[in-house]
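Quick one: sequence plus fe (ii) ion SMILES, need structure tokens.
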Amino acid sequence: MGAVVTAEVAGSAQVDRFDAVIAGEQRIEPRDWMPDAYRATLIRQIAQHAHSEIIGMQPEGAWLTRAPSLRRKAILLAKAQDEAGHGLYLYAAAETLGVDRAELTGKLVSGRQKYSSIFNYPALSFADVGVIGWLVDGAAICNQVPLCRCSYGPYARAMVRICKEESFHQRQGYELLITMMRGTGSQRRMVQDAVDRWWWPSLMMFGPPDGASPNTARSMAWRIKRHTNDELRQRFVDMSVPQARHLGITLPDPALSWNEERGSWDFGEPDWSELERVIEGDGPCNTERVERRRQAHEDGAWVREAALAYAHRRGAEGDRRAAGEPATEEER
Ligand SMILES: [Fe+2]
Ligand SMILES: [Fe+2]
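Reply:
Sure thing.
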């Protein structure tokens, strides 16, 4: 970790500047002084976000070889590739805070850092690909659009591009569902079944209810977070209900009803004990997801070694060229 100034030795001028940048809606950049707790919160949040992008390729990845047409396969491949890219931007953003990616990956595969609990559910049919795009990417967009205004510069800038790509994912998912809903009765049943399984876990993506989310207030004061979990969840429900109607599917919540006074949809309470269980490692696919990531990381060791050896050689070559020495036989 780089030189970290602790709050105790930081001068009050530094603290004042930090507070003024936050209050003035400007950005904190990597070389700026920041409180240790701000840095630690961002490292945890960005790492967890990066891990979610990478692990998030797995549920749908299972359908890459079984896509029903070349067009659907190309779309799904492009999406998986986007998610890998999101992971890379985010690990790079975390690195500006003084951690390295290898360390974060180590924490993920040893279970010391988490990823979004939603990716511990299986994708059982091709309709799940559409529902994940519509609901999971949709929930991710609700969560992430406000992060484009996060007070930490590198995170905010990474989110701008990520959000643009996420909105493509949501549209492709919705388009797949529209196509299936215009198909046969069994295709429509596949869509309804997938919605029944993904709806509640999607609502849980916004985290526990505000009363059980002790860190929210501090993250909001630091302008990392802009809205509470419950506000974002409500926004997602309000956005999804008309889309569900348009599709012709039923959301599996008997408590859903329009609240004229609030101008919003009332909805039922997710089963928070399920969220706790999945976070604690007892979801349907937790072990499989982490194990697969660990195996992929080990299988990729030779690529990292080769890339490093190549970078060293290029470095040595550059040094010699700068010193006016001829290239070696090997370099030619
Ligand atoms: Fe993503
Ligand atoms: Fe996505």
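Confidence is low (pLDDT under 50) at residues 1-8. The longest strand covers residues 257-259.
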